[in-house]
Amino acid sequence: MTGEERAKALEWWEQSRQEFLAAIDGVSEAQWAWKPAPERWSLGEVAEHIVLAEVGLTLNACHWLIYAPMHTLRHVKQMLEVKGTAGYPG
After folding, report:
1. In the chain, helix, strand, coil percent, each to 5?
2. CA atoms of 30 and 44, how far apart (whole Å)
3. Is the model's pTM score more than 0.85?
4. Which of 18, 31, 53, 62 yields a CA-CA distance of 20 to 30 A from 24?
C-alpha cells in the first residue's frame, strides 16, 4: 500500500466514523433499546457490534503494519538462502 493509498484509507475511515457518530447522536434511551422483535438486535446492540468489530479490525491492521515488514524481510532472507534454485543466482 502506498502512502497515498494509506492516507485515503484513513480519510475514509475517519469519515465513516464521523457519519456513524452523527447517526447515533441524539438517540433517546427508548430508541437505543427498542427491538423490532425479540430475536432482533436493538440499535444499541448494533452500535456495540460495530464498535467492537472496528476495534478488532483496527488491532488487526496495526498488527500487520507492525509485523508484515518483518515477515516480508524474513521471507526474502529465506529465499536468498536457497542458492541456485527457483531462478535465484548462486
Report:
1. 75, 0, 25
2. 10
3. no
4. 62
